[in-house]
Amino acid sequence: MAATAPEQAGTSAETQPRQPIWLRCEKKPHEHRSALTPTTAKVLLDNNFEVFVERDPQRIFDDAEFEAVGCKLVPNGEWPSAPVEVPIIGLKELPESTDPLPHTHIQFAHCYKQQAGWNDVLRRFAHGQGTLYDLEFLEDPATKRRVAAFGFFAGFAGAAAGALAFAKQQEDGGKGVLKDLKPYKNEDAMIAQVQEALESVKGGKENVKVLIIGALGRCGSGAVDLFRKVGLQEENITKWDMAETAKGGPFPEILDVDIFVNCIYLSQPIPKFITSDFIAAAGDARRLSVVVDVSCDTTNPHNPIPIYNINTTFPEPTVEVDTKGVGKRLTVISIDHTPTLLPREASEQFSKDLLPSLLQIPQRSTAPVWTNAEKLFRQKMEEARVYDEKNGISA
Questions:
Q1: Which residue positions form the known binding site?
Q2: Could you read off the pLDDT of 167-221 as tens digits, one per residue?
Q3: Nearest one of 191, 187, 189 to 199, comparing CA atoms
Q4: Would you say 373 and 134 are in contact if contact means Cβ atoms under 8 Å apart?
Q5: Which of the listed residues 64, 72, 125, 219 has the most CB atoms within 10 Å of its CB?
Q6: Which residues are named in the active-site annotation (predicted)?
C-alpha cells in the first residue's frame, strides 16, 4: 500500500505539517547513484520533512541505511501511487511511456535541449498537469551556477574509462575491446586499476598523451585530476577551454593525442571539434585512439563530435568509429552516467550540494531557485506545444 501524505496539523512551528518527499528507485540499467543519501535524508528529517524511500537493490546505499535514519521504506516503483502533492525525486529520466505525469518531479529529464523524444516527455507533464524541476537547470540566483552537478565525478570516471579503453585497445594486435565496466568500491580502487592498465601499454603511462576540452569546468577538472593521480606526465595533459577553442574547429591537435576527453557544456551551436572526414584525411598520421564524450550530447543536433550516434553502456563501453578504412582503430565512449562508476562518493557530493535547495521546497512558490526552474519548465512546455502544433502531432 502506498504511503499517505502527512495529516494537516496546527500552524505553530512545533505542529506544522511535515514536508513529504519521495525518493524513487532508478530504472536506468547499471545506475547505482541516488539523489538522496542516508546522510542528507537525515538532515531533511531533522528539518520537518517526511522522507519516503523506495526499496531498491540497485542503489549503492542499502535500504537499511535509510531506514536506520528514520526514512519510511515503500515498495519499489510505487511512486505513481503516491499522493499527487508529494514531490518525487530521482536522478535519471523516467522510462519511456505515454502515461500522464501529475506529480512534481525533481530529476534530470534530458528534454530541454531538444534531445530525441524531448516533446514526448514534456507532453506527459502537459497531460498530467504535473511539474518538472530539472536538476540540470536548478541555478543559484546569485551566481547563475548550477546548485548541484555530477560534473567532477563525470570527468574523473570518464577519464578513467577512456584510459582503460586505450590500454585494452593495445592488446591482441590492436583489436582489444573494453567490456563490462563495474562500479568501484572507492576512488583508490579505480586509480589502482587504471595505473595497472596503463603500465601495460607500450612506453608505459609516461608516454600517454591526452587532451581535455572544457578543462576549467567541474567536469574537465575531474578528468585532469584522474590523469594526474594515475601518473601521467603533466606536459602530456593538454588542457583546453574557451580560449583555445575560440578559433573554431576542427582541431588537428585532437588527432595528436592518444585520448581526447570532451567536457564542454553545450549551450549553443559551435563549430565541430572533429568529423569523420577530418579523421580520414589524417590517415596513418593520426595518433588518436579513444574519444571520451563525457558531455554526451549524442542526439543533440549541434553535437560537436558527430562521429558516433549512440550512447554506450557499462557492458559495452565503446563504439567503433568509421574511419573510412584509413588509419588505426578509433572508438568512442559515450556513457551518459559515468559518475555511477563511483556511486557512493558521487551521490554524497551531489546530494550535499543539492541539500540547501531541497530544504527550501516548502517555500518553493517563492524561493528563486525553484521559481526560476518552474518558469523555465513553463517556457519549454510552450516550445513543445508549438512544436507539436507545427508538426501536426496530436496533443
A1: 145, 217-218, 241, 245, 265, 294
A2: 999 998 889 999 999 999 899 999 999 999 999 998 889 999 999 999 999 999 9
A3: 191
A4: yes
A5: 219
A6: 92, 110
Residue positions annotated with a catalytic role: 92, 110
Q: What single-letter amino acid sits at 142?
A: A
Would you put residue 154 in left (φ > 0), alpha (ψ -120 to 50) or beta? alpha
Q: How far apart are CA 228 and CA 339, in angstroms?
A: 18
Please tell me the total number of residues recorded for the chain in this structure: 395
Cell numbers at residue 40, please? 542528507
Q: Rounded CA gap, 308 and 81, in Å?
A: 39
Q: Which three cell numbers stand for residue 10?
A: 496546527
- Residue 120 near residue 376, CB atoms below 8 Å: no
CB atoms within 10 A of CB 324: 12
What CA–CA distance (Å, rounded) separates 184 from 188?
Answer: 9
Please report, in range form, the residues annotated as the binding site for NAD(+): 145, 217-218, 241, 245, 265, 294
